[in-house]
Amino acid sequence: MLSLHAGMRVHLALGATDMRKGFDGLAAQVQTALKADPFSGHLFLFRGKRGDLLKALWWDGQGLVLLAKRLEKGRFVSYGLCQPLWSRVSDRLMGWRCFN
Fold this sequence. Notes:
The model is unreliable at 84-96 (pLDDT under 50). The protein has a five-stranded mixed β-sheet, with helices on both faces. The chain starts with 9 loop residues before the first strand and ends with a strand. It has helices spanning 23-34, 82-89, and strands at 10-13, 43-47, 53-59, 64-70, 96-99. Helix content is 20%, strand content 27%. It is built from two helices and five strands. The longest helix has 12 residues, at 23-34. By secondary structure, the protein is α/β, with parallel strands linked by helices.
């Protein structure tokens, strides 16, 4: 179970991510694009090109957890809205951060 805690940050990957990537590929993207540690306990979100698939990568203290959600109808919000979303949400959640 994914449990959010006060110090947890949520990082949103800007643009489309190759959804064929698994644990290692997404962890490498976190390290190279964000210069962050995928084993930090923070949540990293990736959106597919069509917008109907979202993957989350999270270290639970024992191993990496990869969650995926595919919408049958509709699309996940475009990350072009990330900056306004970040300014509204950051007061309520501990540190949303977008990266390329």
